[in-house]
Each structure stands twice: as C-alpha cells, then as structure tokens.
Amino acid sequence: MASVRIGFGYDVHRLVEGRELWLGGIKIDSPRGLLGHSDADVLIHALCDALLGAANCRDIGFHFPDTDLKYKGADSKLLLAEVVRIITARGYRVGNVDITVCAEAPKLNSHIPSMVDCLAKIINIGADNISIKATTTEKLGFVGREEGIATYAVALIEKI
Ligand code: MG
Predict the structure, then answer these.
(1) Residue-range definition of the domain harbouring residue 43
(2) Against a cut of 0.70, is the pTM above it?
C-alpha cells in the first residue's frame, strides 16, 4: 500500500430526550442527547470510519456491530482506541484528522479544545494534528430542525 493514504467518514445520530450528549469523547450539557446502541458519539464514529477507510479496513459497523450486546452503551473512546490499534497493526500511524460537526444546538465552539485534547490522547498524536470544526446548517434539513447531529471527517495515515 502507499506510504500516505486518506480516508473519509460520515455519521448521523438522532437527538432525543433522556440521553446524555457525548461528542468528541466529552459529555456536554444539553437537554437532549444522541440516540444509539453505544454512547452515540457521532464525532468519534465519523472519525473511526475515516481512519478505517484510510487503511481500507471496512467500517465501524463491521468491527463493532450494533447487534452485539458487548457494545450496548459502549464508550466510543474505547472504539476509537481499538480502531487506532487496527491501523497500527497494518503498519500505519495517524497523520492528521479534520472533522466538521453539523449541529444547530448546543453551541460547540467552547468545547472544541477539550475534545481535541481527549482525542489526541487516545490517538497518541499532537493536538495540532487534530482539527475540529462546528457549523450549523442554517436551520435547514434534519440538522437544522434539531432532529439530529451529523459529522464529516477526513483522516490521513502514514506508513510507519
Ligand atoms: Mg454512529
């Protein structure tokens, strides 16, 4: 395989009452949270798919099926750690990642430094290699109606 490879990931989770909101590995104060089999950390899920895609190692659902009770309520940080292990086993390290979270509410900008620190520790790369951006969708579509949160991620991996 090539010495440098790129991957792309996308994920969506529904916003509902009665769930905690976990994004980028941290808990965010919010009246509603994301629904999912795991903790539904949509940011980490998109990042995992970008990393797996870069290494051509299928997707997050392949490695952590939502039919498996082992992953019910799972901390997505543990899934990301496992994805990093899979990539390392293939002889790659993470170069840099760039992530865009699409959410109408809550406002995420003040939480981004904490997310970056959290992800940098798990991936074991410098914080300057992790970019997280937040945007609304101008009240358009399911994100704009606050029915859910979407995340896009790209990742570069390099042959060790
Ligand atoms: Mg997901």
Answers:
(1) 4-159
(2) yes
